[in-house]
Amino acid sequence: MKIPDRNEALALLKEYTENENLIKHALAVEAAMRSYAKRFGEDEALWGVIGLLHDFDYEKYPTAEDHPFKGAEILRSRGYDEPMIEAILSHASRTNIPRDTPLKKTLFAVDELCGLITAVALVRPSKKIAEVEVKSVKKKMKDKAFARNVSRDEIREGAALLGIELDDHIGTVLGAMKDIAEILDL
């Protein structure tokens, strides 16, 4: 499989996404994907690019009917390999693409969790992820009113798909995000 250059993927993300928070989300997912790729002995560059591009079409095509289907069309028109496109499609349950590889399972597992961790960091007085701990993420998971658009079920399902305890999963993603805290402005 041909892996696009990270700079090419970042340029594509920014071509379709102006919202800084959506770009930061993509960067967080990229970091989490790279962390898991390293852990699982997989291709960090490939996994990172898929994390970076998983929602690149969301700002322009936010509806359930369009996202991530429009993104898949765009990627195909630009010559991206079908396994990459299928992995990106698999992160949304409505696509009915089976999560049958470690790559697909991981993208699904980290996506919502990155959003929740960001929200937890932003309610800290310092707004710094350095102050966020696994237990504070788990506590906020129980508060259904907090970051209500983040699916707790998908976070738990993602950890189960990976065969990893929830605390370990949260810790892995949190660590990856802490590593790029400056980039995320957290």
Describe this structure in words.
By secondary structure, this protein is an all-alpha fold. It has one domain (about 5-185): Hypothetical protein af1432 (Orthogonal Bundle). Helices cover about 65% and strands about 0% of the residues. It has ten helices and no strands. The protein is globular. The mean pLDDT is about 95.
Write the layout of secondary structure elements.
Blueprint: H1 6-16, H2 20-40, H3 44-53, H4 69-77, H5 82-90, H6 102-122, H7 134-142, H8 152-162, H9 166-179, H10 181-184
- CATH C-level label: Mainly Alpha
CATH level-two architecture: Orthogonal Bundle
Secondary-structure element sequence? HHHHHHHHHH
Number of domains: 1
Rg from alpha-carbon coordinates: 15 Å
Q: Which word captures the global form?
A: globular
Mean pLDDT reading: 96
- SS element count, helices: 10
* Poorly predicted runs: none
Straight-line N-to-C gap: 34 Å
| Helix/sheet category | mainly alpha
Fold-level CATH name: Hypothetical protein af1432
Number of strands: 0
Helix content: 55-70%
Strand content: under 5%
How would a crystallographer describe the biggest sheet? Answer: none
List keywords for this structure.
186 residues; mainly alpha; Hypothetical protein af1432; 10 helices; 64% helix
What's this model, at a glance?
The protein is mostly helical and 186 residues long. The protein is built from 10 helices and no strands.
